[in-house]
Queue: 3 jobs
Job 1
Amino acid sequence: MAGRESEPSPVALFDASYGNFETEVQGAVRRGAFGEDIGQNSWLTADEWRRYLGRLELSASTALLDVASGGGGPAICAAVETGSRVVGVDAHAAGIATAGKLAARNRVEERTKFIECDASQRLPFEAASFDAITCIDSIHHFADRRAVLAEWRRILKPGGRILYTDPILVTGSLSNKEIFIRSSLGFFMFTPPGINEQWLAEAGFDLVGQEDATENMAQVARRWRETRAENREKLLELEGAETFEGQQRFFETTSALAAERRLSRFAFHATLRA
């Protein structure tokens, strides 16, 4: 009887990234992974983000909520490039601290605010507070997506818009080892094709469009791993061997699964139903 594969130890990707965000080596890794560094920590490229922002019709008179805002880079980019007021929420204290520093550096403190909170729970905002909500490559960390979408509906203004990416759509066969490696960053909700459309409709949203962004994930994951390998010694000093190797396995697995279309990433754009 074959021995059972053990689950990998949790990988401290977010704490390692946010805690060392301003180091030279992390900046080099972001540039290598994404090309243009806007302070992102997902599969998001700057071109992709600008395209998404364009769909949300943001301006100086609008308010955007960025859910799971991480180190705040994309949220600050949105404030700078659209003039919109932007609030970011994230569960990681180091990410919120980093976002505050970036906002000051970009001189958008008056139009941005970052709050540490668990976005899977009721959010600390009044009803109809926002014109738009984004959540990039993080919605799979929430166990009850129906409840999250219902909360977004509560805090959106009439006709409000949402755009989120789901990078954990199962579109092929996955082994238990591959699933373990992909979920080594914490809780992951793997979903089948069609479920996002169903849950959006049930929550009172009309789907405007969706985009297959799997290739972006495959390429970013590959470049991320390669750039980290080039900077191995410096990263080992910052992260330690266990975290470094765990992240390398994560990026290698993600790149392979996305390239083979066994795990897909899609962006969903929807509006609050009248």
Note: The chain has a mean pLDDT of 92.
Job 2
Amino acid sequence: MKKLHIQGMSCHHCVMAVGKALGALDGVMNVRVDLETGTATYEETKPVDKKVIAAAIQKAGFEIVE
């Protein structure tokens, strides 16, 4: 499982937006987003470039915190 810390989520709609953004990426599956901890976890079926992940999160209106 890969884990991301995501900044900017404040409601269930945010959780859904992040989940949808990650779930739409080729090679990403089993996405789980937790509003309380500000994290998203997912599995990869093939390697996915971290820049692609970051771009999808940013397009949804959020940022990955390293």
Note: The mean pLDDT is 97.
Job 3
Amino acid sequence: MASRSKKRKVKRPYSRDLEAELCRILIKTGATKFGLFKLSSGKLSPYYVDLRMIPGDPKGLRTVIQIFERMARSGVGISRFDRIAGVPTAGVPYASILAYQLSKPFLYVRREAKPHGGERRVEGQLLPGERVMIVDDLITTGKNTLQAAEAVRAEGGQVQHALVLIDRQEGGESALAQVGLKLHAFTTISKIARRLRQSGVVEDEQYEAILAQIAR
């Protein structure tokens, strides 16, 4: 009697739609706001994504760290960096937890050198030639990430990769590329906005405002 052939289960890299889950986290934490905001880059924006709200939701934080970890492993490759540096302030909690998860030493980069002690901008042990991966919550023009990379390089570190959750699509990726820094973004603001509009959280007018901001 011929044996029945069994279908092999194909293992998928993700057990769920993490982008959709991220949108649910943004909704739950109230991280997406509309109005008129001045960004750290100096630009004005009709919307604001405040990912500093997510650490207040432990379940959401676990999901975001899971996203960062998979990006670090599959997008960058953990053998390609020695240390992880967080960009202040929103990138620091994500970078520190990610460093713990990956058993990598953690650094954080100050916006300015402290006026006492060693007067360093990079806190933590950094040896000349070590490869540092920069981690931030999101990217707009790339100003903060570039400043962090410059500070690390000034202290002898090598920086080739930057990890962010959301790319606001306002020139950050190309700005990083110009100085030899590759951006790894989990998703873009246009994809997030599309999902939020489909779920009824973002109105058509707000959706168009986001797209107009990208086009500027």
Note: The chain has a mean pLDDT of 89.
